Structure to design on (448 residues):
C-alpha cells in the first residue's frame, strides 16, 4: 500500500443543492421554480416526487452544519435558490430569503467551514420560463441583477462563488431531450440556452466582482470522451468546448457552429457577448461521475448528448461495474479529464462534485455499510492525486453529496449521500463512506 498525500491547503468539502435538500418550498416568500412545475407534471419524476419537503434542511440547518463540522470538512458547496431571493426573478430582494443564506454562511464560518455558494443549481424562477426561459437573453441579464444582490450581502464571508452548476444539463436536459425541467425538446432553443447560460455566467462574474467577491468561477460537467477519434471530437465539441472555449478563450468552436447550422445560425450571439463571457476566473469547478464512450454509427440520429451529433452513438464497453444510476465506474476518466483541462486550458481546477448512488440503507446494527461507495470514493480521490502528480493544479475535492436527497427526475429513489437520510423521520445517519471520508480529510490523503 502506498500513502497518497495531497498538497498542503488542499480543500476537502461536501456539496448539496437548494431544491434537492431544502424543502420549505412555500415558505418565507419563496416563489415557484421550474422544478416545482416539472415535478407537479405527471410522468416527469419518479413516482411524481418533488423537492417540496426533501431533507427539510431549511429547518435543520443547525444540525446539518454540525454534521459537517463533525466530519471535519474544510468547505461546503451549497446553492442559493433564486426564487427565495427574488420570488418572481426580478425586483427587490425578499429579506427572509436573503436572511436564510446569511445565517447559513454565518454558521458555516463559525464552524470553521468555508462557504462556497452556487448561484444557480437549476431552480429557475417559473416566471422566466413563462417568458421563454434560458433561450431568452433577458434571463441572463436578470441573473446578473440577482448575482449583485446576493454578492453584496454575502461576499465578505464567501470563499468561492460558483455562478452556474452544469450549464450542459440546464441547456440539453432542460431544452434538448426534456429529461429535466422545463422539459422542452427543442434543439434550437437548447443552443440558444447554451449561449445565454454562458452569458449569464460572464455577467454574474462581473456583478460579483463589483460586489467585492474574491474567488469566482463556474461549475461544469465535462464529459471525458473515450472511443473513436472523430466521434470523440464531435461530442467533445457540443458537451465540453461549447462551454470551455467561450468562457476560457472568448470564442465558440467553429466545428460546433458548423455542425448545428440545421438548427440555428447562432445569431443570438451579439456583439460584445464573447468579451462579456470571457471573464478571468480563479479556479474551474469540475463535476465528474463517469466517462462516455463513443463511436461512429452511420444513419444514427442526433444522440441524447446534444444537437449536432448525427452519426455518433454512445456505448458501454464490457467488463465494467455500474452504480445504481447505471453509470460505469472508471476513475481513470477523472485523471484524464483533469490532465486534459490543464494541458488545453492551463487553468486550476477543483472537483466540485464526485460520488456515486448505491441503495445501501441501515443494517441490523443500525449502521450503513456502503462498501461500494467507499471503494468509489477511494479510487476517485486517488485519481485526483494521479492528476496532480501528472502536473494538473487541482485545489480541492468536494464529495456529492453530504446526504441523500431529491435526485431530480429520479426522485428519492437514488441515494448519493455519504450520510443516510430516513425521509419518514428525517434522521441523518453517517454511512461508512462518511467515516472513510472523514479520515481522508484528517490525514489529507489515503492509502492505495
Ligand atoms: C449532477 C448534479 C447534482 C446531482 C448529481 C448526481 O449532475 O449537479 O445535483 O444530481 O449530478
Amino acid at each position: 500500500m502506498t500513502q497518497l498525500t495531497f498538497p498542503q491547503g488542499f480543500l476537502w468539502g461536501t456539496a448539496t443543492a437548494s431544491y434537492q435538500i431544502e424543502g420549505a418550498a412555500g415558505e418565507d416568500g419563496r416563489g415557484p421554480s421550474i422544478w416545482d412545475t416539472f415535478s407537479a407534471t405527471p410522468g416527469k419524476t419518479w413516482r411524481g416526487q418533488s423537492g417540496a419537503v426533501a431533507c427539510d434542511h431549511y429547518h435543520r440547518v443547525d444540525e446539518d452544519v454540525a454534521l459537517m463540522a463533525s466530519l471535519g470538512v474544510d468547505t461546503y458547496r451549497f446553492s442559493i435558490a433564486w426564487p427565495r431571493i427574488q420570488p418572481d426573478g426580478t425586483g427587490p430582494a425578499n429579506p427572509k430569503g436573503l436572511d436564510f443564506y446569511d445565517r447559513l454562511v454565518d454558521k458555516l464560518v463559525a464552524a470553521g467551514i468555508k462557504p462556497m455558494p452556487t448561484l444557480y443549481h437549476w431552480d429557475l424562477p417559473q416566471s422566466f420560463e413563462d417568458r421563454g426561459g434560458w433561450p431568452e437573453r433577458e434571463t441572463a441579464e436578470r441573473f446578473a441583477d440577482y448575482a449583485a444582490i446576493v454578492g453584496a450581502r454575502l461576499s465578505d464571508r464567501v470563499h468561492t462563488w460558483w455562478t452556474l452548476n452544469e450549464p450542459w444539463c440546464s441547456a440539453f436536459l432542460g431544452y434538448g431531450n426534456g429529461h429535466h425541467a422545463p422539459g422542452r425538446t427543442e434543439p434550437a432553443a437548447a443552443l440558444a440556452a447554451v449561449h445565454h447560460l454562458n452569458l449569464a455566467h460572464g455577467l454574474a462574474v462581473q456583478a460579483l466582482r463589483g460586489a467585492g467577491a474574491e474567488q469566482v468561477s463556474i461549475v461544469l460537467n465535462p464529459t471525458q470522451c473515450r472511443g473513436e477519434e472523430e466521434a470523440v471530437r464531435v461530442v467533445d465539441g457540443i458537451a465540453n468546448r461549447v462551454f470551455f472555449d467561450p468562457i476560457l478563450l472568448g470564442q465558440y468552436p467553429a466545428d460546433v457552429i458548423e455542425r448545428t447550422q440545421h438548427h440555428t445560425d447562432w445569431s443570438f450571439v451579439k456583439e460584445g457577448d464573447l468579451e462579456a463571457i470571457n471573464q478571468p476566473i480563479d479556479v474551474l469547478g469540475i463535476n465528474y461521475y463517469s466517462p462516455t464512450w463513443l463511436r461512429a454509427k452511420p444513419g444514427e440520429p442526433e444522440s441524447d448528448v446534444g444537437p449536432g451529433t448525427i452519426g455518433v452513438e454512445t456505448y458501454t464497453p464490457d467488463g465494467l461495474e455500474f452504480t445504481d444510476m447505471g453509470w460505469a465506474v472508471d476513475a481513470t476518466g477523472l485523471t484524464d479529464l483533469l490532465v486534459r483541462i490543464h494541458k488545453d486550458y492551463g487553468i486550476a481546477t477543483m472537483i466540485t462534485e464526485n460520488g456515486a448512488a448505491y441503495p445501501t440503507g441501515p443494517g441490523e446494527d443500525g449502521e450503513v455499510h456502503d462498501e461500494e461507495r467507499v471503494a468509489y470514493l477511494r479510487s476517485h480521490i486517488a485519481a485526483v492525486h494521479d492528476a496532480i502528480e501528472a502536473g494538473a493544479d487541482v485545489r480541492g475535492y468536494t464529495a456529492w453529496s453530504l446526504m441523500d436527497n431529491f435526485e431530480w427526475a429520479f426522485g428519492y429513489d437514488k441515494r448519493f449521500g455519504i450520510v443516510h437520510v430516513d425521509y419518514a423521520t428525517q434522521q441523518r445517519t453517517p454511512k461508512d463512506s462518511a467515516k472513510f471520508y472523514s479520515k481522508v480529510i484528517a490525514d489529507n490523503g489515503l492509502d492505495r
Q: What stands out?
A: The CA atoms of residues 116 and 253 lie 30 Å apart. The radius of gyration is 20 Å. Residues 17, 20, 165-166, 169, 221, 287, 353, 400, 407-408, 416 surround beta-D-fucopyranose (CB under 6 Å).
